[in-house]
Write a structure and sequence with these properties.
The chain is built from 3 helices and 5 strands; from the N terminus they run H-E-H-E-E-E-E-H. By secondary structure, the protein is of the alpha+beta class.
């Protein structure tokens, strides 16, 4: 093999390794939830559309309100990116809230919320104290040694009736 051919092969192998490593850094993108096909939730017009037209355009909602079940519908979608060994990260979120009037099935309002509108709920780090004392590891391991007795016969099997 000539010197030029081996140099070319080396360059080709380095280029392939570089492309392979660059492809490994690309995120895996996932789309979850509602996906608009023909119409978008933002196309719904308050006062004009009804429940029937919303169902025909968008399909069934992702979820409904807990307290006003038939009056508020939500269409939720989100986009996540996951790099090699990291947890998935939500990059886009869209929540469209469609509110209907109570007496009729007409759309009263349409509101779109994004990822910036979300709020992080912080967990409270306080603990409720429990009764009793704290046991060491050794006390936990050896705590039941010598307590009680082993059953002597098969009559002492749990769930069996003992003869009186």
């Amino acid at each position: 093999m000539s010197r030029q051919a081996s140099a070319f092969a080396l360059r080709a192998a380095m280029a392939a390794a570089l492309l392979g490593s660059a492809a490994a850094c690309a995120p895996v993108v996932g789309q979850n939830g509602f996906q608009a096909i023909d119409a978008k939730p933002m196309d719904i017009v308050a006062g004009t559309d009804t429940k029937a037209t919303v169902l025909a355009r968008l399909g069934s909602p992702s979820t409904t309100s807990t307290f006003e079940k038939d009056q508020v519908w939500y269409y939720i979608s989100q986009l996540t990116e996951k790099y090699t060994f990291r947890r998935p990260e939500v990059t886009q979120r869209s929540v469209t809230e469609i509110t209907f009037t109570e007496g009729s099935d007409q759309v009263a309002g349409v509101r779109t919320l994004t990822l910036a509108d979300g709020q992080t709920v912080g967990m409270d780090g306080r603990q409720t104290p429990t009764r009793g004392r704290r046991l060491t590891v050794l006390e936990q391991l050896l705590g039941n040694v010598g307590r009680g007795q082993l059953p002597r016969t098969e009559e002492n099997v749990p769930g069996q009736r003992r003869p009186d």
